[in-house]
Amino acid sequence: MSKNEKLHPAIPDLKAAVNAGKLTRREFIRYATLLGVSAAAASQMIGISWPKKLAAAGPKRGGVLKISQSIQKIDHPARYSWLMPSNSMRMVFEYMTLTGPDNVTVPYLCESWSASEDLKTWTFNVRKGVKFNNGDSFTADDCIFTINQWLDQEVKSSLLGLVGSYLKPSGIEKVNDYQFKLHLERPEIAVPEHFFQYTAQVLNHRTFEGDMKKAPHGTGPYVLDTYKEGEICIVKRRSDYWQKAADGKPLPYMDEIRFIDMGSELAPQIAALKSGEIHLIDASDNPGPQIMKAVKGDANISVLPVATATTRVLRMRVDMKPWTDNRVRMALKLCQNREKILALAYQGEGLQGQDFHVYPKHPEYCEKPIPAYQPDKAKALLAKAGYPNGIDVNIAVGSEWTDIVRYAEVLKQDALPAGIRVNIQTMPTSQYWEKWTEVDLGVTPWTHRPLGTMVPNLAYVADDKGNPVPWNETRWVDKEFSALLDQASGTLDVEKRRQIFCKLEDIQVTRGSIGIAYWMNTWMCPSKKLKNVEAHPNLIFLFNEAWLDV
Length: 550
Hints:
By secondary structure, the chain is an alpha+beta fold. Among the domains are: 1-52, no CATH class; 222-307 and 522-548, Periplasmic binding protein-like II (D-Maltodextrin-Binding Protein, domain 2, 3-Layer(aba) Sandwich); 311-520, Dipeptide-binding Protein, Domain 3 (Dipeptide-binding Protein, domain 3), CATH 3.10.105. The chain has helices at residues 10-19, 25-34, 39-45, 83-89, 140-151, 159-162, 191-194, 266-275, 290-295, 326-333, 338-346, 375-384, 402-415, 429-435, 454-459, 479-489, 494-511, and strands at residues 64-68, 97-99, 105-107, 110-115, 121-126, 172-176, 179-183, 222-228, 232-237, 256-260, 280-281, 304-306, 311-316, 350-352, 391-398, 420-427, 441-446, 514-515, 518-520, 522-524, 530-531, 547-548. Strands 8-9-10-1-11 form a 5-stranded mixed beta sheet, with helices on one face. A 4-stranded antiparallel beta sheet has the order 4-5-7-6, covered by helices on one side. Helix 1 (10-19) runs antiparallel to helix 2. It is globular and about 70 Å long. The model has no long low-confidence stretch (mean pLDDT 94).
């Protein structure tokens, strides 16, 4: 925010909420930065110091970072289904904003922004002097083109459900080459946070024609050298990257990063990490405790823990029998022994869930009791639904997600007393991602989002034509839920938003389409040769200033 711009009128109210003990200091900083205040200024407002960016201690230049990662099929970043491809490609393509490990959103390719009092007009100022790796200048046209890609129904991006819930193409205004405005259909507090969704990588409007491999022209610190699906991705250092280190020296430090597909089995990857053959395993797609427990105590490997809203969603297609009947959906959810599932599937490393997609540490979370395991009640519900002799169901799970397989196994065992006979259909993870929105019953990984409004807008609403948005894998749309979600998305006051969420959570529990048995702790476990890195709740890689002790 420039000196000429005024503070958003909600800032004094947020500060008063901190003084009254209704809002934590961290939450104040989070909301103030979303409204365009710098993190340093927001910290100063509440009497604390925001840590200054310091130059890395003795960084070395050069070296090749080696990361084990599944090299997935890619074409359009707005269509990523999972985090892994975004981790390799974020070395080449960047974002308009950046939400850090602390969940605070700060400027990136957009150097500042501001919101109108009613949160319906947002002004973004584009950073000057940035170039794509093919020499083109980065301007507001690239941001506008990228946002329009998200809103294009032919692209089928998950961002159509998130950003498209409040923005139409006609609401995008180019002010000049380095400024654009968004005129929203409804108030929305989290616009800058949405622009750091892993699918929101900024494209070169002059060269992108649908396949990022054919025109890998990003603004990032590396250039794409090789991309072979199922084998390897290699990115190499740029000599003209726009961002500088704290000491003013050029970035990045490393010469090259190699993402190597070592298959789905963790044991050989862990062995390679321990031997020094690789420096890191990309665990964003499979963030279980196995890696952490295998390397804990190894003098050459760091264990960096992070609490996160990552979870596994037991999801039922409400447009496919028998899940069209809410009584059958509720019966299956009642068969979850959550304490047992968390202990056996995820070694107790997390929190129990309550069948609504709001994490207990989200600021708007409304506390609810943990649902009990009730097979007798489930059996009675099935009888009322027309299944007095029970029911046979198939559940699709990705075989490499070992905690999901175990989750399904525990559910199968505990559903039998209710008369639900579960047949587990395991398949390679890649195959699950090909059909994750199509199976009638499955378990899908969902990664961390900083606010409780974000996943519901991605996964449990319809577009403006009434059709479920691209990531609404259950096809569940509830008019009351959607109206309340719109209201919550434009409500700054956390206590008022929490009151709305009490209703949202109840709706999802009583007539929703999902079960959530547990939330997952996660860990980043890099070689100690990899310096200046932090664990992010999404396990994404922010390696612009990372270096190797070679």
